[in-house]
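REQUEST ID: PR-0412
SUBMITTED BY: lab tech R.K.
PRIORITY: routine
TASK: structure prediction, single protein chain
INPUT:
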Amino acid sequence: MFELTSTRLGLIALHEDNLRLSMDDPAQLEEDLGLHPQEARPEPELHEALKQMLAGVVRDRRNQLWYTHWQIVERQERQLIGGLYFQGASR
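STATUS: complete
OUTPUT:
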């Protein structure tokens, strides 16, 4: 797992197994990342995007940070507050 942090926020790049968990068992992903659990499940549109991200990670492991989903975490509360992703590595 790759993580960038500031005083208030953390950005966590999900690896392949975590991407799968984010689609199949978000509560387990939050537990694995040490976050306070939320009841929300990914919206269908996000679920489709996560599948595409996973395909990119599997296809281009060397550049997986450009394909994966990044979780934005409020560090003090260990609460997931958002996410971001890129559309792949530049060519």
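NOTES: The mean pLDDT is 91.
REVIEWED BY: pending
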